[in-house]
Write a structure and sequence with these properties.
The complex is a heterodimer of chains A (90) and B (175).
Chain A: H1 4-20, E1 24-28, H2 30-89
Chain B: H1 3-27, H2 34-48, H3 58-76, E1 90-94, H4 99-113, H5 117-127, H6 132-139, H7 143-167
């Protein structure tokens, strides 16, 4: 629980935070912004999607390689164990 | 995007620009400045508007996008910022503020920046007067957890501010 002094400080903090944005004048030029978003963002999106697909492709193949290696090792060890047991039983 | 959707988008930006900028400003680290982050958020909102289902409150949705952009920028800003789309349709100019307000804000911003990532988001949302329920939705933790965290973060933040004031001759929060 905050004491009286802390509560006062907190309300001061709150007003500092809320007033901070008044230090800026944000001017949105509607038509220009829409034009820019339409012309600039779509080509960028395409470029980013292409890069993402490339990255996913590369990481999948790396992941697949690793997982096949792991599976092969597991299979070999299990098979060896099984053969060992089989020989003993004979 | 249809004309109606474009109008909706512009209204959304106009109504939320202050709160978006506040968070961007608290998160920005050189070489990326608050304006770059703000533009990035605008681009993200533009790209995601079609997928907004309206299940959540629009304010909650905007905060989520803003925080995601800010998290991501903190992680990638050291590498590059080549994917930033420069937008001339947004102009941000500095206004003259009092030295007192400025120095108080600097201390507050430094102390918020010193918090852990999640704590930082929670306290900024709390300062923006979001409900515990909405903070829980945005951050993905339970409402009870939000309440507990806010109590702890407040104490941490107050400690930081008081000790920053003790170390400097700047304007004090405590009167």
């Amino acid at each position: 629980m905050l004491n009286k002094e802390q509560k006062d400080v907190w309300s001061d903090i709150q007003s500092t935070w809320n007033n901070s944005v008044h230090a800026q004048d944000i001017n949105v030029k509607a038509k220009r912004l829409i034009d820019e978003l339409t012309t600039k963002v779509t080509p960028l999106e395409k470029r980013l999607i292409k890069a993402d697909i490339e990255r996913v492709k590369n990481s999948i193949s790396e992941f697949e390689k690793n997982s096949i290696d792991r599976d092969l090792k597991l299979l070999t060890t299990s098979l060896k164990k099984f053969m060992g047991l089989f020989r003993k039983e004979k | 995007m249809t004309e109606v959707e474009e109008k909706e988008f512009l209204t959304l930006i106009e109504e939320n620009k202050d709160r978006i900028y506040r968070i961007c400003h608290a998160y920005c680290i050189a070489p990326m400045d608050a304006q770059d982050l703000f533009q990035e958020v605008v681009v993200q909102i533009w790209q995601s508007l079609g997928s907004f289902k309206g299940n959540s409150h629009v304010k909650t949705w905007i905060y989520r996008i803003t925080l995601n952009v800010c998290y991501r920028s903190n992680k990638t800003q050291k590498r590059n910022n080549q994917n930033i789309v420069p937008l001339d349709g947004i102009e941000i100019a500095q206004r003259q503020t009092s030295v007192t307000d400025e120095s108080k804000y600097i201390v507050l911003r430094q102390c918020i920046s010193a918090l852990k990532e999640l704590d930082r988001s929670i306290i900024m949302l709390h300062l923006d007067e979001m409900s515990y329920k909405d903070i829980a939705i945005i951050t993905g933790i339970t409402e009870n957890h939000v309440a507990v965290k806010i109590k702890r973060i407040k104490v941490k933040l107050l400690d930081c501010i008081v000790s920053s004031q003790a170390n400097s001759s700047g304007e004090a929060y405590v009167k």
